Amino acid sequence: MILDVELVNAQPTYDHWNILIKAQNSQINDSLANFGIRPDATSDFDNAYDIPRPPRAPSGNYLEVYFPHSGSNFPPLLGSKYAVDFQGPIDPTWNFSVEASLAGPISLTWDMSYLNSIEERLQLFLLDLTNGNLIDMRANEIYTFSYTAKRDFQIIGAVNVGFKYIMEGFWNGTAQVRDTVSGYLAQSVFPFSFIDSSQYYLSSSGTGRFIFKNAVSGNYYFVIRHRNHIEIWTSISLDIVKGTTSFTEYDFTNHADAAFGSGALKPIGAVYAAWGGDVNQDGVIDYLDRNITWNNRGINGRLSSDCNGDNNTDATDLDIVLNNRYKTIQKP
């Protein structure tokens, strides 16, 4: 049987791609399992795309990765094991199983570079249903486990939040010094606890994307922290969907009320930025931040007291702290 679905358009998009999951143990390689998205595919049987696995070899030696399907419009004559499984573009998930005639280590591999050529709207995580391991398929290209019996997996998505965020001290009016920020999803009701976190290395324009792999769909406040700027929360809680293709966008820079509270953002020209100077990250800019910055004067490096991102703590950083004294975090 020839499974002719490997090639896709030159530049794959979130709604038009496919990828192989290969399996290997000490004796056998399996390279038939292929899954992906097509705009006109469905979660049911698609005659144009879905292909059953061929029968096992008469030798009795086998290693197979397959997508289990039965019922609905799946033809009983084709069996319940599919080598190719395409679905539509609205947050699909895939179930697949691994069976082998030999116990021992099995490695699953996929083309990580190919996945990373698709826009970040697409997020795929490999979930091992036996032990709960969750693997980011855009950041890893292999998963190895010890096989003893049929192993079940899911390919699921994540909470995907694109954002824009400017740091007062790092912004020069047209661009900002790139740095890592942390994002959190907080409960929308008391006690507003953080339920998931992520990090991102911001672009010079302030754009980024947080991938929250543990959170479920729900209503959350979205929170951003930087090492020496006041923490900010979204002005309202957001309805956020966990999925393979869904995403949420939030811009903290385009309105004074984009962050929770009154005056939680500093206007700088046509944009709004987080207040700089919370050097010790205790939620208030005060004499403690001043003292740390003063004591670090003349020291080079990526310090919390470097409030403008030039890798040197000096009078410029101290001015940011002093000018913003008594600014505090505002949250529900």
Contiguous uncertain segments of 5+ residues: none
CATH class identity of the largest domain: Mainly Beta
Report the order of strands and helices: EEEEEEEHEEEEEEEEEEEEEEEHH
**Alpha carbon gap, first and last residue:** 60 Å
Total strand segments:
22
CATH fold descriptor of the largest domain: Immunoglobulin-like
How many individual domains?
Answer: 2
The class by helix and strand makeup works out as mainly beta
Examine the secondary-structure arrangement and name the CATH architecture of the largest domain.
Answer: Sandwich
Task: Work out the helix count.
Answer: 3
Largest sheet: number of strands, sense, barrel closure: 11 strands, mixed
Shape: elongated
| Overall pLDDT score | 96
In terms of DSSP E residues, the strand content is 35-45%
Q: Name the helicity range.
A: under 10%
What is the rounded Rg?
A: 25 Å
Draw up the topology in text:
Blueprint: E1 17-24, E2 29-37, E3 51-52, E4 63-68, E5 81-87, E6 94-100, E7 104-109, H1 112-115, E8 125-128, E9 134-136, E10 142-147, E11 151-156, E12 158-164, E13 180-187, E14 194-201, E15 207-212, E16 218-226, E17 229-233, E18 238-240, E19 242-243, E20 248-251, E21 265-268, E22 271-274, H2 287-295, H3 315-323
Parallel strand pairs: 2-5, 12-20
Antiparallel strand pairs: 1-2, 1-7, 3-5, 4-5, 4-6, 6-11, 7-10, 8-9, 8-11, 12-15, 12-19, 13-14, 13-16, 16-17, 16-18, 21-22
